[in-house]
Amino acid sequence: MTQKIKKLVQIGALLVLFCLPIFLITPQTALAANNNQTAGNSDSSKDCSPKSFLGIPPWYKYLPMEKDATDKCSPNLGDASDEVRSSRLLSIGVAILEAILRISSFIALAMIFWGSFKFITAQGNPENVTAARRTVINTAIGFIIVLIAAQVVGFIGGNILG
């Protein structure tokens, strides 16, 4: 029985190791990098695309960017018409939802490590082993759901709103 659990933990760790790089380098980020290389634009000060931290997008990710008089980029919130305002609010909402999903994936990753730690420290106690196994399995399922949801939201934001 413990061999099956060890194998399950190993598979979960491999899943995390293979999914995390795919998650952190999204298709939108790779496409933006490719566009900068093909345009010969290596100077990042000329680029107004929003920067992210650990793959977490800023709230203005899907808003159009513009440069002001001081050559500083800022989101263009548009005029006061209801149609533009609702479109901008939807874009901000999608970016915030994407950020929440990505933060959730980091929490799920930490929970997988916590479940693995509980499994290691169970010392053969069947109740603790079962609880640790349940934690790892449920968190792995949640992690996969969050990864898929973040990619779907990123696709909707990048292709429909952007």
Element layout with pairings:
Elements: H1 2-24, H2 27-38, E1 65-67, E2 73-75, H3 82-120, H4 126-161
Antiparallel strand pairs: 1-2
Helix pairs in contact: 1-4, 3-4
Number of domains: 1
In DSSP terms, counting alpha (H) and pi (I) runs of 4 or more, how many helices?
A: 4
In N-to-C order, the SSE pattern is HHEEHH
How many strands, which pairing sense, and closed or not: the largest β-sheet? 2 strands, antiparallel
Strand content: under 5%
Strands ordered across the widest β-sheet: 1-2
Runs in which pLDDT lies below 50 for 5 or more consecutive residues are: 25-45
Mean pLDDT: 76
Helix content: 55-70%
Amino- and carboxy-terminal Cα gap: 50 Å
Number of E-state strands: 2
Judged by helices, strands and strand pairing, the structural class is mainly alpha
Question: So what's the overall shape?
Answer: elongated
The Cα radius of gyration reads 21 Å
Folded structure, characterized:
By secondary structure, this protein is mainly α. It has one domain. The chain has 4 helices and 2 strands; from the N terminus they run H-H-E-E-H-H. Helix 3 packs antiparallel against helix 4. About 13% of the residues have low confidence.
Keywords:
two-stranded antiparallel sheet, 4 helices, 162 residues, mainly alpha
Q: How is this structure best summarized?
A:
With 162 residues, the chain is mostly helical.
